[in-house]
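Researcher: Re-running this chain for the archive, since the previous output was lost when a drive failed. Same request as before.
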Amino acid sequence: MKTESEVEGFVRNLVCNELDRRVDEASERLPHLCINNYRHTLDQRKQIEGEENDNYNRITDKVGLPVIQTIGLCLLESEDPTEWGGTICEEPIDAKKCPYFTPAKGKDVILPELEAELQNLDWVRENLPEVFALLWVLGDFKLSVPWWKRFLFMFLRIKIEPVLPKIDAQKLLPPPEQVEP
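Model: Regenerated structure tokens:
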């Protein structure tokens, strides 16, 4: 049988793991984690006012699973999707090569957001079920990030992956004198 202090320590450990997961996620270069990325819905209307819609989106999955009917647009230097500059940022490789990638969440957002969510028991029940079950066992326990983890978090730097170098396709091709006519 575990003591109350051991259970409390395990809850604190689970909360620390959630903070570490969020820091790791913030360190990734993915399109949806960039401040400039905007998820725009695709046109799903087969007909408009009785006429066939030429822009109808026909993206489906061969297995029959639902497909998210949105596309990632880069809104760098434009704040309105109607003024879109024409750059699609949908795949992870797009974000990994982008020199303008700016993380949507920084250190100043991650910890306060987690602290606020830990105070909402419905959120804890939905997202951290182990913690919620242990809170029920403990009864009256104030859920928060431990002081020592907050202290270490102050010195933490979120390191974004570096930009992938551009690939020069000409270097991959054989020299012109080796190509047979």
